[in-house]
Design brief:
16 helices; single chain; two-stranded parallel sheet; 4 strands; mainly alpha
């Protein structure tokens, strides 16, 4: 954080106002990135795109988004998360609006890349700010609130976008969403961050080599890749899937996906609150977070297999079951690295984690487009998602020795779990 961002420590109300604005930023983030998937069947019909082109269009967002996570984590800590988040939001809002005026695949592809550049600042900035303004014992609820924002975004985006598209054409949703996104900058310009993090990391600021030596970093990165593969696969293709595979109209698709994403968001909020309650009562963050992450990934496998092979009613029910499970693990996805890294390293840690984890966004939409283009069905795509979900158990449960603050020591900062806050989060 830069000196210009620092102010006097906020009170409780101001702290949760900041959390609310961060949740709103990621809410907007996911509305804007989900606008093309919601309009995919209409864009396909209007521009004559093949399933393979749709897959490339959806995955293009992730090409630069994933690569930029690595430098963005450093930029957040060098130039300040507050201003970088504002600049990124302005860029992605403008890219969203411009989609409404293009008429070629190449132009759409370019704007999806530009959207990825703008949105790449989101999670490293938010994680740095949460680690700065939220005490560690409330990090689960804070991440649950933020998760509600980015999980509820697709629900609102799909419903509102579907209604706008049905009445005014698919281009209208991009103009409206992009313009409304810019309004967030007004309250954010009035935010004043604390002069010092509320949770101090033990030791010195760790160099990059110290982060790269930590098995926990690679565990959270593999875990996020697994989470993101199923999540981005469904986020990109669920509207198209229910229209083409189950014969839903645009209006029915909007209502169905709205309910699915609403369940997703509410599950994330409830899970964050429940994890904090368990940690406060029993002081066992390690068990609470690992149990949730392991159980949800096992559930992902069952849901994806059911969607692939079961009759239509069971497949549609499994979509909702998956939303509940993915919502439940969302507070841990960024809460765990925020606890491990602390405010000194949260921006860089999440930048690396998000960079690796978001390559799933490059692979999943494009691979799905290829598989659907060859078979004209989604069965093999869901089975691939089931197989990738197994990796999450390895990353979250077996590669992280203990969910507790790391002690960054000296110049080599080898790091050990524990420190002043570690004993209360065993």
């Amino acid at each position: 954080m830069t000196h210009s961002e620092a102010a006097s420590d906020p009170g409780t109300a101001a702290r949760w106002t900041i959390v609310g604005l961060l949740a709103a930023a990621l809410f907007i983030n996911y509305i804007d990135r989900g606008a093309v998937p919601t309009a995919a069947h209409l864009i396909q019909d209007d521009l004559g795109l093949s399933p393979q082109q749709l897959g490339l269009l959806m995955s293009a967002f992730w090409w630069l988004y994933a690569l930029l996570q690595f430098p963005v984590g450093w930029l957040v800590e060098r130039f300040g998360a507050q201003r970088l988040l504002a600049a990124g939001l302005a860029l992605w809002a403008c890219a969203t609006m411009l989609v409404g005026v293009v008429h070629s695949f190449a132009a759409l592809l370019t704007l999806r890349l530009l959207l990825g550049v703008g949105e790449s600042v989101g999670f490293p900035s938010v994680s740095k700010l949460l680690a700065t303004v939220v005490p560690v014992e409330r990090i689960g609820l804070a991440n649950g609130i933020v998760a509600f924002g980015y999980l509820f975004g697709p629900a609102v985006g799909t419903l509102a976008g579907g209604m706008l598209m049905a009445s005014y054409g698919w281009r209208s949703s991009f103009w409206v969403f992009g313009a409304l996104s810019l309004l967030w900058l007004l309250p954010w310009s009035r935010v004043r961050l604390p002069a010092r993090p509320l949770t101090a990391s033990a030791g010195a600021d760790p160099p990059m080599r110290a982060l790269l030596r930590r098995p926990e970093l690679w565990g959270t990165s593999l875990g996020l890749f697994s989470v993101n593969y199923a999540f981005y696969f469904t986020l990109s293709w669920l509207p198209f899937y229910v229209v083409r595979e189950h014969g839903f109209s645009t209006e029915k698709m909007a209502g169905f996906t709205f309910l699915a994403y609403l369940v997703h968001a509410l599950s994330g909020l409830a899970a964050g609150w429940l994890i904090d309650r368990v940690v406060a009562r029993h002081g066992r963050a390690n068990l609470a977070y690992k149990a949730v992450m392991g159980a949800t990934h096992v559930g992902f496998v069952a849901c994806m297999v059911c969607i692939a092979l079961a009759p239509a009613p069971w497949a549609l029910a499994a979509i909702f079951a998956y939303q509940v499970l993915d919502g439940a693990n969302s507070p841990g996805v960024f809460g765990i690295p925020q606890i491990l890294a602390g405010p000194r390293a949260a921006g860089r840690w999440v930048g690396i984690q998000n960079g690796i984890g978001n390559f799933a966004g490059v692979i999943a939409p494009a691979l799905t487009g290829f598989l659907v283009g060859r078979s004209q069905h989604f069965t093999s795509a869901f089975l691939v998602a089931a197989a990738v979900s197994v990796l999450g158990v390895v990353g979250w449960v077996f590669m992280i020795p203990k969910v507790a603050p790391l002690e960054w020591s000296g110049h080599d900062a080898e790091g050990t779990a524990g420190g002043p806050a570690g004993s209360s989060l065993a």
